[in-house]
């Protein structure tokens, strides 16, 4: 505040004979000058403060700053902050974990190694070997290629031609080195699309895949899966497979042709799940939750209520559907439309099943419950046989949601499709697909859309020990969202990407920028 408090000025001027009018004019001139100087000082302060804000937040442009300033801090929604960068944590060899003991990195251009402002430059095509000894304290190491040169991680077991765009941020930790790849979303999708869908698939199927993958990316960009390293996702099947296949012209074209397009429902970006092949029905949000909320309405569920009746009639009806299929299903001629898995239950196989169940009960106790009248759960692997495996519940899509495994002394309930697939799957066992081809299974059963044919010991009646099960299954994957082989078949029939997506999801396709600009 500016004011005059020295009354001596008035007295001096009056004594020297200044007229009253002249005195008043002089006073007003002095006041105006004083106000101007105070105003100028305030203006300088505001500009200085604004400059400091810009230094702290160099990536925010004026429009973004205005958008944020127009909202209270409590109401700011992360998804409203436009940002086309994604941060992907790169897992180690075999996707066994997130820590690396050593990284061998090469670039066709000059490679710049930046640690807290100290920059080393390596010539083109030379190897840089990074170990924990290279780090100084907790400082990260940032690696980039000159002229946007791509970086190759040569010792993590990915596709030999995998070239990472953007930059690699490497963090030290007691367990090993953590690597995060930061790059533009669209360039990230150049590798995700061919890693998730064969590049030879029709153009409209690839475009549908690009939109779905982009939507999934922006959905997960709203938070960090790995907060310590500010990574939105990792590069495994837990999110989207990244850099497992070489970029291809058809995949790049699909990404470019659909640039910035995402799926929305009610104005929000959705979590656009997708999977390989359907059983003939879509699982919808029921794949993940027993209770489906209004927010899940973008995921379409189909099927027959009879399948979910949990009675013998429903089980017979679903077994008949599995055995015969429906020729009207778009994937009827796909190899994964139907499959069988024959598993003998000798002593070794039984021990493997029961040991896996015990392990799952420790890691996921809410989904695997072991009960016995007399024995501790750690005695389960010592049981000599399995008396029965039965289905407790299934959804109307046919998906099995609960099973019961019984031994002489134990009952084990297993819930949710993913854990059921873990419990019944066996790595390296063979699955026979509809076209007669063989597939070597990983840790998961191909899907949870199946019924079980049981073969008993001795008299072949229930109550005896199971000696063999034949799982008659359908589809590949969790069954929620878009079927990729369904998308292929629809594209072959002439459907556009938008029409394909409309079959699998409720909602609209919108531009990411439009969502940012129109959000309240």
Write the layout of secondary structure elements.
Elements: H1 8-15, H2 20-56, H3 62-69, E1 85-90, E2 103-107, E3 111-115, E4 118-122, E5 127-130, E6 141-145, E7 151-153, E8 167-172, E9 177-184, H4 185-196, H5 203-220, E10 233-234, H6 249-257, E11 261-265, E12 268-269, E13 274-275, H7 312-324, E14 339-344, H8 347-363, E15 368-371, E16 388-394, E17 400-406, E18 411-415, H9 417-424, E19 430-433, E20 438-440, E21 450-456, E22 466-473, E23 482-483, H10 484-492, H11 497-504, E24 508-511, H12 512-518
Parallel strand pairs: 1-10, 13-23
Antiparallel strand pairs: 1-9, 2-5, 2-7, 3-4, 3-6, 6-8, 8-9, 11-12, 11-24, 14-19, 14-22, 15-18, 16-17, 17-18, 19-20, 21-22
Please count the helical segments.
12
Q: Based on DSSP secondary structure assignment, what is the total number of beta strands?
A: 24
Largest sheet: 7 strands, mixed
Unreliable residue stretches:
1-81
- SS content category: alpha+beta
Strand order of the largest sheet: 4-3-6-8-9-1-10
Quick overview:
With 520 residues, this protein is α+β, with helices and mostly antiparallel strands. It has helices at residues 8-15, 20-56, 62-69, 185-196, 203-220, 249-257, 312-324, 347-363, 417-424, 484-492, 497-504, 512-518, and strands at 85-90, 103-107, 111-115, 118-122, 127-130, 141-145, 151-153, 167-172, 177-184, 233-234, 261-265, 268-269, 274-275, 339-344, 368-371, 388-394, 400-406, 411-415, 430-433, 438-440, 450-456, 466-473, 482-483, 508-511. The longest helix is centred in the first third of the chain and has 37 residues, at 20-56.
């Amino acid at each position: 505040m500016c004011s005059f408090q020295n009354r001596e000025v008035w007295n001096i001027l009056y004594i020297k004979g200044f007229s009253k009018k002249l005195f008043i004019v002089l006073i007003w001139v002095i006041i105006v000058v004083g106000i101007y100087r105070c105003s100028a000082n305030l203006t300088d302060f505001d500009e200085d403060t604004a400059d400091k804000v810009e230094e702290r937040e160099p990536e925010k442009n004026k429009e973004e700053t205005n958008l944020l300033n127009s909202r209270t801090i409590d109401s700011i929604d992360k998804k409203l902050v436009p940002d086309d960068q994604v941060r992907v944590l790169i897992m180690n060899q075999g996707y066994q974990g997130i820590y690396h003991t050593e990284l061998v990195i090469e670039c066709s251009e000059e490679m710049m190694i930046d640690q807290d402002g100290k920059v080393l430059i390596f010539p083109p095509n030379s190897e840089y070997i990074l170990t924990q000894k290279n780090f100084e304290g907790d400082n990260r190491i940032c690696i980039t290629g000159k002229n946007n040169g791509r970086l190759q991680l040569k010792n993590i077991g990915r596709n030999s031609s995998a070239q990472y765009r953007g930059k690699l941020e490497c963090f030290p930790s007691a367990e090993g080195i953590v690597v995060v790849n930061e790059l533009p979303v669209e360039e990230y999708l150049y590798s995700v699309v061919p890693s998730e869908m064969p590049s030879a698939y029709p153009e409209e199927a690839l475009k549908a895949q690009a939109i779905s993958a982009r939507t999934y990316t922006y959905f997960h960009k709203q938070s960090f899966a790995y907060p310590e390293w500010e990574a939105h996702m990792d590069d495994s099947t837990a999110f989207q497979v990244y850099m497992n296949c070489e970029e291809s012209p058809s995949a790049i074209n699909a990404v470019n042709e659909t640039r910035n397009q995402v799926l929305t429902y009610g104005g929000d970006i959705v979590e656009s799940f997708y999977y390989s092949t359907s059983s003939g029905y879509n699982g919808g949000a029921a794949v993940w939750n027993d209770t489906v909320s209004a927010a899940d309405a973008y995921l379409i569920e189909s099927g027959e209520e009879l399948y979910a009746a949990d009675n013998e009639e429903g089980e017979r009806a679903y077994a008949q559907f599995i055995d015969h299929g429906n020729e009207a299903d778009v994937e009827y001629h796909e190899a994964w439309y139907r499959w069988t898995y024959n598993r003998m239950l000798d002593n070794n196989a039984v021990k493997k099943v029961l040991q896996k169940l015990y392990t799952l009960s420790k890691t996921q106790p809410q989904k695997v419950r072991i009960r016995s009248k007399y024995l501790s759960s750690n005695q389960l692997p010592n049981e000599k046989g399995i008396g029965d495996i039965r289905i407790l519940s299934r959804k109307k899509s046919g998906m099995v949601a609960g099973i019961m495994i019984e031994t002489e002394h134990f009952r084990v309930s297993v819930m949710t499709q993913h854990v059921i697939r873990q419990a019944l799957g066996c790595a390296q066992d063979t699955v026979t697909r509809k076209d007669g081809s063989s597939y070597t299974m990983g840790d998961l059963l191909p899907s949870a859309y199946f019924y079980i044919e049981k073969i008993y010991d001795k008299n072949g009646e229930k109550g005896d020990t199971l000696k063999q099960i034949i799982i008659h299954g359908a589809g590949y994957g969790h069954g929620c969202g878009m079927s990729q082989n369904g998308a292929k078949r629809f594209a072959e029939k002439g459907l556009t990407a938008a029409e394909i997506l409309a079959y699998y999801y409720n909602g609209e396709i919108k531009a990411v920028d439009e969502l940012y600009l129109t959000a309240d």
